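Structure in, sequence out. Go:
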């Protein structure tokens, strides 16, 4: 199931090595996690829950839960975070992990303590940007990240970025931005970076526990803390929601775009925000069939251009629909969705069931801000950036990271300025999608671009790349829609078509044949999928089929990596309406003749297998303290520390008509990540 080619990503692998799963020899490549190596062989069940024997697999792929625990050389580890090693013996975790036999050869080291001026937790766009600002000022800074590469979610983003081309690399792919930022960070001599080094806790003596390189426990004493830990994905309650094959969009993108594993064959996406829309597009690029996408609201909440890309390619989008249940015994086999009423309740008789092997839950994010809240509690000067501060696009995280870095420097007493335009730029980049305007009228010219981007979003690459300045975006507010001025003759260079992050510009050319003009459209599915002379299905902005066009040629724009320009011959009557090409693959869903059996009640606490019915019963008996619910049911007592189930339990209170103000929240765990207790005594890992 490993990808051998990809239209955007370079697939380069070195020599494989052997490891073992259940004593069977498999092959892995350097840099692969245990999870990705197992997924490459179609192995999705990593163990069994000790309570009811239910199959366990990947859920977050970000180290935030414990669904993917396996035994690696006899030790329980998270498969999504642990790199596979030559000769490693991996086994599924059946029940609770057993402690290793007593050893007389345990070694302990003295707990090292270090002092830094600023500790940055998180190596994504916000954390790297904050550290760079501090590095430029010569501030002694330590950046720690729990992954083996810097970049955070940028490493998963193969699409071009929106936002300001001048400020945040708009028009450049996220994977490229990650490399640019990490390269710039390496040049900062006063910044030290620890990878594979999760922060574990913030303590009342103003120290932060860090597990350096997964082996040495170190206490870091910062003067200032910058928290750029990103976000975790929200979950949903529905029967079958814990089956292997139900996981977050971020987990899916990690497997596909970072680890180059085809993580599904038939995929259904729940959630029409940018995360869900983008993940569906990434799936198509990896050769995965996207059966459909549903969104509970009447319209998708993500950028219209992201939705347009999907419908043009033939993906059905079901708005005002929600997931009812997932079906399967050991793995997802199908999904049932239904239309919802104005109160978002499923309408009986509107159910639709689709065979699929993977369900992506993309229903929003929650800030990972525990470190920040503890720092405030214990009096450590701290600043938040990126999604840990406010959920927004990664382009905004770059800017809020820069601002947090400057604020940290100022808190140290340095005379640094935070330009007012930075704050304004950050607010613009964090903007939600705005109004949708009518499509502009077409000019009476022989050659001109057609701008299919009609929604107010923060973006300006089209204006920045036009060599003649014919496409204009308000420089004071890049959320306003672009317009073609037509003051001078368009050269037909195609740069606007190639660099538009939303793939929302086409080029119409009547010069050679007024009756059958040439329309240039962007294409990001590789040269192998099209060839000159081929007839293709041509669609409009909303995915409506216009008819067939003929491919004249495939071209490239210098520096527009991996975006092809496809020149089509089409009738003049719909030349200005052409927005894209339907993928030459079957995407229509297959509906089984009979609905599959509905599984048991939805599981709220994945770690302890606590069902919604158990918690509802306690709420109806008058329980208002989530800690009491924990004591009775063990909900929130599992390895993830209540990270996933907390919001679901609060949702159950709301559904029962209990205001959140009357609910006592969980007492936060003193540690944010589970580790062997010996670590805190300085025990050396074998």
């Amino acid at each position: 199931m490993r990808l051998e080619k990809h239209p955007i990503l370079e697939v380069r692998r070195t020599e494989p090595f052997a490891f073992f799963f259940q004593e069977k020899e498999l092959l892995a490549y350097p840099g692969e996690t245990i999870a990705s190596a197992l997924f490459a062989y179609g192995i999705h069940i990593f163990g069994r829950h000790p309570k009811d024997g239910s199959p366990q697999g990947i859920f977050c792929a970000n180290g935030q839960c414990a669904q993917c625990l396996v035994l690696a050389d006899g030790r329980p580890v998270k498969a999504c975070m642990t790199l596979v090693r030559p000769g490693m013996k991996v086994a599924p975790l059946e029940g609770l992990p057993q402690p290793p036999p007593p050893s007389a050869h345990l070694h302990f080291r003295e707990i090292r303590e270090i002092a830094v001026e600023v500790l940055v937790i998180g190596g994504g766009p916000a954390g790297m940007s904050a550290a760079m600002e501090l590095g430029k000022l010569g501030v002694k800074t330590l950046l720690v990240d729990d992954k083996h590469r810097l970049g955070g979610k940028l490493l998963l983003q193969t699409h071009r970025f929106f936002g300001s081309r001048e400020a945040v690399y708009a028009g450049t792919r996220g994977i490229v931005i990650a490399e640019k930022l990490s390269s710039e960070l390496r040049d900062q001599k006063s910044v030290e970076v620890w990878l594979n080094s999760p922060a574990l806790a913030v303590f009342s003596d103003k120290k932060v526990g860090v597990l350096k390189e997964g082996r040495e426990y170190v206490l870091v004493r910062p003067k200032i803390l910058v928290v750029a830990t990103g976000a975790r994905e929200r979950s949903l309650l529905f029967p079958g929601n814990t089956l292997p094959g139900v996981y977050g969009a971020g987990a899916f993108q990690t497997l596909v775009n970072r680890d180059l594993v085809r993580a599904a064959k038939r995929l259904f996406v729940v959630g029409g925000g940018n995360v869900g829309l983008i993940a569906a597009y990434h799936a198509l690029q990896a050769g995965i069939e996207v059966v459909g996408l549903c969104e509970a609201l009447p319209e998708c909440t993500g950028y219209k251009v992201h939705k347009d890309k999907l419908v043009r390619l033939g993906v059905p989008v079901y708005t005002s629909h929600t997931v009812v249940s997932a079906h399967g015994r050991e793995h997802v086999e199908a999904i049932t969705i239904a239309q919802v009423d104005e109160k978002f309740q499923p309408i009986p008789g509107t159910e639709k069931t689709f065979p699929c092997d993977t369900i992506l839950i993309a229903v929003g994010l929650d800030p990972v801000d525990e470190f920040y809240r503890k720092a405030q509690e214990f009096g450590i000067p701290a600043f938040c950036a990126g999604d840990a501060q406010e959920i927004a696009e990664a382009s905004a995280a770059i800017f809020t990271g820069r601002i947090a870095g400057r604020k940290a420097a100022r808190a140290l007493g340095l005379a640094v300025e935070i330009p007012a335009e930075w704050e304004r730029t950050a607010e613009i980049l964090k903007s939600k999608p705005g109004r949708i305007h009518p499509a502009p009228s077409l000019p009476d010219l022989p050659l001109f671009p057609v701008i299919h981007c009609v929604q107010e979003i923060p973006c300006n690459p089209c204006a920045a790349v036009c060599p003649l300045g014919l496409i204009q975006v308000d420089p004071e507010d890049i959320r306003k829609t672009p317009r073609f001025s037509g003051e001078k003759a368009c050269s037909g260079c195609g740069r606007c078509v190639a660099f538009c992050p939303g793939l929302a510009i086409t080029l119409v050319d009547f010069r050679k044949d007024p009756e059958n003009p040439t329309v240039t459209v962007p294409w990001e599915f590789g040269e192998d999928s099209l060839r000159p002379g081929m007839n293709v299905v041509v669609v409009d902005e909303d995915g409506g089929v216009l008819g067939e066009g003929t491919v004249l040629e495939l071209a490239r724009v210098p520096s527009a990596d991996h975006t092809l320009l496809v020149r089509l011959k089409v009738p003049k009557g719909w030349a200005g309406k052409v927005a894209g090409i339907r993928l030459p693959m079957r995407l229509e869903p297959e509906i089984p003749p009979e609905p599959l059996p509905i599984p048991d009640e939805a599981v709220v606490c994945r770690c302890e297998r606590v069902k919604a019915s158990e918690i509802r019963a306690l709420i109806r008996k008058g329980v208002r303290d989530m800690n009491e619910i924990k004591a009775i049911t063990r909900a929130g007592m599992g390895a993830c520390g209540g990270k996933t189930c907390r919001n679901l339990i609060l949702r159950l209170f709301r559904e029962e008509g209990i205001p959140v103000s009357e609910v006592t929240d969980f007492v936060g765990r003193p540690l944010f990540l589970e580790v062997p207790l010996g670590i805190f005594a300085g025990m050396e890992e074998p």
